[in-house]
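Here's what a typical entry looks like (Formate dehydrogenase, cytochrome b556(Fdo) subunit):
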Amino acid sequence: MTEEKVERFNLFERLGHWSHGITFVVLLLTGLALVFRGYAGLLGPGGLRLFRGIHHAMAYPFTFLTVIILLLGTPRTFLQWLRECFTWGRDDFRFIFAFPREFFGLKAELPEQGKFNAGEKLNSLLTIFGSILMAATGWILLLRDSFSPAVVSWALPLHSAGALLMGGVLLGHVYLALGHPNSRESINGMLSGKVSAKFAREHHGRWYRELKAGERQEKQAKIA
């Protein structure tokens, strides 16, 4: 019997996610070579110039591409995602306090969640504000002749601290998407757009009920 699937992310949501993820990873790897001398030494002068060129070129898609994809391709779900990220209720805080047990494989009582659970909301907020910090400080460093020495001197440590923070967020995100036994089904949502109905019911129960209620209303409207 074929397992029922439900669509969690449309094509543009997935393109936006991957454009951000891929450009950030390239920026992180090339940026490390510009900061750590040992890494730069392995590359040599030619490799370092290549990495610097890639790092600077990736600033454009990192800053603009994801926003353009989401705004033009799927504005309704983009705004829904932003609204959910900035809307926190009692169940979200209960989830955050209980989730560390789930993260480390212990039994946890997690409250019912919407399309994005509280951990995903927190990850999204860190990504949004971290990306703004990285883009702003990165452009200041790239166009340093247009700014005062004081602004440039603040931009460099903030850019490095932002990279460390977002790198840590990325590691946790990758572990939950690929390694954690209770949540790795979620990667299917970002590959094919669909997850199993069982996963949707168990991890995003409120969203699953709303989704099915909408489908029933749509069928009834067609019959009428």
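The longest strand covers residues 5-7.

More examples are in the samples folder.
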